[in-house]
Each structure stands twice: as structure tokens, then as C-alpha cells.
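Predict the 3D structure for this chain.
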Amino acid sequence: MCAHVSAPKTPKAQRSPQGDRFIPKRSAMDGEMAFFNLCANENSNPQTPSSAKKTPGKDQYKSTLADSMGMGQTNKPHKILTLQADAPKPPEGHLNSQRVLYTQNKVSDMKKKVSMRYIPQAPEKILDAPELMDDYYLNLLDWSSTNILAVALSQTVYLWNASTGSIEELCTTQGEDDYITSVAWVQDGNYIGVGTNNQEVQIWDVGGMRQIRTMKGHRGRVSSLAWNSHILSSGSRDSSIIHHDVRIAQHVTARLEGAHTQEVCGLKWSCNGQQLASGGNDNILNVWDMGQTTPRHQICHHQAAVKALAWCPHQANLLASGGGTADRKICFWNTTTGALLQEVDTNSQVCSLMWSKHEKEILSSHGFTQNQLTLWKYPSMVKVAELTGHQSRVLHLACSPDGNTVVSGAADETLRFWKVFGNDSSKLDKSKASFQSASLARASSIR
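Done. Predicted structure below.
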């Protein structure tokens, strides 16, 4: 016996609360206008005499007459049947949230107003630096994170405290033919590396004003130094680069040879410490990966010595390099691929490069003919400012810890302090800050 199974019933669709016929709402209709639109073409007389042809004056008269009778803009389509009432008008003072949101987004997408800042054309301070050597290949100036400026004048390193204006003599070489060839502060500013013509690298404790150790290994003068945490890299006239671990007795951890054939005059670690850039008097620029003894990229683009090197603090793997008298170019490199991104001919020897910490701007110092400092906007490489005043080539640049002031050292034996970079008050460290006008008045010579 089979059970009877009934088929499931389809549920009835619910009736719409609205009507199912399009019945016009007469209260919202304009019957007279609708009738006029329907009969306008029928009443037109095709046998219009030539004297009654349309003219601009007649059209203007008809339009004005129609407006005065409430029947203007008859050429625009009008609804003959109105099937529902118009939406109620919003109350006075109501703001549509979507319209407000659109307006806010529209304003944010608009081109921002370019802010103009004043760049003084004269230095804030000039210090005499007697016996500052006129040697393109040396690196004799550096500014620490603790606001102390180190400058090497012949055989002696002097320390100028930019906060107090005090000057101290750190060290003096002993040999008759010996002199200081390079100086470089460690990142925390407590120690300084000093290279000499006597092929030595010295480490000095600035707080105790004492020498901690002497490291040897080069067969020529040490013309460039660069710190990367506890690793101090040194470049020499013997064309080699040595990595020194200053914590251990056997300090030489790597010797980089064969990539340069002449003096290594430029040496800079990247901001993240993963790559080292080296430039030489052989016109070669090398990019080294941390821990490697062969260069990642060997670039032979420049036509003169490559001393000026600067890593961009705003963009990873962006390196700027500058060439000497026979080259005169500033080049920008992607150090991941080795590609040349951009170059600009400066028409003078490029001695040093310095990126701004706050803006995408780069400062270059030059030799003959103007001995000027030039501020460039990157990547457009439009000149923002040119600063003149030095009487000889501007060999060295160093930046204050707050990133606002740049000091330039030139072969005219002067140091000049320039307010060239913009402020970043949100990042300004008041304790290290900087460069007080009171301290500037206390000294006119570095020694």
C-alpha cells in the first residue's frame, strides 16, 4: 500500500502595497503646459510667408513673452503625466552627508599650495680654519649626533661644541711628515675615527679625550672612513678597503681589494647598513653588499674621480654620486639593479653631496668657477638656491644633528654655516638641537 504524497504548494506572492496601474496624480500635473506642448506643432503654419521668417529678435521676444506668462523654456522636455508627488524639499540649513564627504575628498585631492621658505644667501657664521688642506681626496670635516663638529687642520683635530661654542684640541700627529687625512664620528657620537698619512686608523674616546687604540693594515694614507655600528671601514691610497671590528683584538674582518686601482677617496654606508658605496680616483663607483668581498655593482660611468657620495634618507637604495673636474655630473643610482636613474651636468667640479633629512632635496658643493653650494629639488633637479661666498673650492660638507644647518669647509681656510635646509619641528631634539646663535658669537676661529 503506497502512501499518498501531495506536491508542495508554491507560496503565494505577497501583494505590493503600491497600486498596479499607472494613474497620474493630477494635483502635481501642469495640464496647460502639457496641452500647449501637444498642440504646438499642429498650430504651426508650414506656409509661412518669407516676410514672417524667424529672426533672432523674434526668437528673443517669444522667449521673453513665454517667461513672463510662466511658460518659459518650452524647448525643454516636460512630463505630461506625473505618476507620483515630488520628493519633499529638505529643511532649511540641512547638509547632505554624501555631499559633505564628496566636498572634503575633492579638497584633499586638489593640488596642494606650494609653501615657499626663505633661504638666507649669507652664512650665519664664518670661522677661520687655518691650514685646512687643499686636497680633493681627503675627508676632514664631520658633525656628530651630540652636536660637536670635528675638523682636521694639518696635524691636529679640533672639536667645536656648537651648543656652547667651546673649542678643544683632541689630538696631534707626531711624525714630521704625518698629518690627518680623514675623520668620522660613530653614530652615537661618543667615539671618533681618525685616519692619518702614516697609514693608521685611530679610535678616540671624546668624553675622556684619550686614544683607545690604533689599527693598522693599509699601505698608504687613510683618506676615507665610514662607520656601520661597530664596524669601521677605511679607504686608502693603496686602493684597498678594510673593515675593522673595533670590539676585538684582531680587528681586520675583511679586506676588499682589486675593485679599485687608485686611491679610495669616497666611502659611505647606506642608512640601513646593508650596502657600502666606494668611489675612487680611478673614476669607478662600487656598491658592496654587507658581508661580501666582491662588489654587487661596478659602475664606470663617471669621467673623473668619484669622491662625493650620499645615500638618500627618504628612499631605500637611492645613491647620489658626483664626479670631479673632468666629469662635473651628479648621478642617481638604483643600487638594487645598478641602473642610472638620472644625471645632471653642474658645469663645475662636484666636491661633496648632502641630502636633506626633511625634504627631498640635495645640496652639492663645487669648485671652479664659482666655488658655490647648490640646493637641488629631487627628482626634478630644479635649482632651489645657490650660495656663494667661498673664495676657493668647497671641499667638505657636514650637517647638524637637527638637519637644519650645513657647514662647508673650503680651501680658502674658512668654515661657513648655512641655514639651508627646512625645519622639522616634530622631530627636533631640544637637547641636541642645535645650533644656538649665542654660541656663534663666542668664536671666530676654530683654534
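Residues 128-424 form a domain with the Methylamine Dehydrogenase; Chain H fold (CATH 2.130.10.10).
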